[in-house]
């Protein structure tokens, strides 16, 4: 297993097509499996590809991938750095995704470890994320030391379109 920080795609350059397709595969698998990560089901391939092409070019967002034994992307996570003058100490975690075929392999923990190390390195001491209330992900974050800040009812629709509560969590990296 290898964790890799992807280079930011800037200017007229486009992200590598193979990379985008592998990330889209992970995203679509997670949505198909019921993960509430901003998309409804079914998630069309073109929609997933477009989302990743745009996301990989966002200047304040860094993306890590976990590669399996065959070198294929099995998971990813993103860190979005807050840009306001009064927020240079914080960042938001998004899209921690692991393909269902690779769950339980340690990819998620390794991805979050790399993200947290990088956040500290760039002076971010407060992280924030949101996850569907009652999900497996919520319990995993709690095991990793994340603290529940609050729950907002009917905050986001699950992939099946049903509104569900969202738990907001934080972690102090100091």
Question: What would you say this structure looks like, in words?
Answer:
- The chain has 174 residues and is α+β, with helices and mostly antiparallel strands.
- The protein is 29% helix and 33% strand.
- The protein is built from four helices and seven strands; from the N terminus they run βααβββαβαββ.
- The protein has a seven-stranded mixed β-sheet, sandwiched between helices.
- Helix 1 packs across helix 2.
- The protein is globular.
- The two termini are 28 Å apart.
Please summarize what this structure is.
The chain has 174 residues and is an alpha+beta fold. The chain contains 4 helices and 7 strands. It has helices at 17-32, 45-55, 107-121, 136-143, and strands at 2-5, 61-67, 73-81, 90-98, 126-132, 147-157, 163-172.
Give short descriptive properties of this protein.
174 residues; alpha+beta; 4 helices; 29% helix
């Amino acid at each position: 297993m290898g964790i890799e920080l992807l280079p930011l795609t800037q200017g007229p350059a486009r992200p590598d097509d193979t990379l985008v397709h592998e990330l889209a595969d992970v995203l679509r698998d997670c949505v198909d499996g019921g993960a509430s990560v901003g998309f409804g089901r079914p998630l069309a391939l073109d929609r997933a590809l477009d989302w990743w092409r745009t996301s990989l070019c966002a200047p304040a967002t860094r993306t890590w991938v976990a590669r399996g034994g065959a070198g294929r992307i099995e998971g990813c996570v993103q860190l979005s750095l807050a840009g306001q003058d009064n927020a240079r100490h914080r960042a938001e975690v998004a899209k921690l995704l692991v393909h269902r075929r690779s769950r339980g392999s340690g990819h998620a923990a390794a991805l979050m470890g790399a993200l947290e190390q990088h956040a500290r390195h760039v002076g971010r001491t407060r992280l924030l994320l949101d996850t569907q209330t009652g999900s497996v992900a919520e319990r995993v974050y709690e095991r990793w030391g994340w603290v529940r800040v609050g729950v907002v009812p009917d905050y986001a629709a699950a992939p099946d379109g049903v509104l569900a509560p969202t738990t907001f969590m934080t972690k102090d990296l100091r």
